[in-house]
Amino acid sequence: MTDQTATERDAIRTVLDNVSRAIGAKDAKAVVSHYAPDYVLYSLAPPLQSIVTDERALVEWFDTWRGPIGIARRELSITAERDLAICTSLNQMTGTKTDGVKVHLWYRATVGLRRIDGRWKIVHEHESVPFYMDGSFRAAVDLAP
Amino acid sequence: MTDQTATERDAIRTVLDNVSRAIGAKDAKAVVSHYAPDYVLYSLAPPLQSIVTDERALVEWFDTWRGPIGIARRELSITAERDLAICTSLNQMTGTKTDGVKVHLWYRATVGLRRIDGRWKIVHEHESVPFYMDGSFRAAVDLAP
Question: Which of B45, B85, B133 sits opposite A133 (nearest CB)?
Answer without folding.
Answer: B45
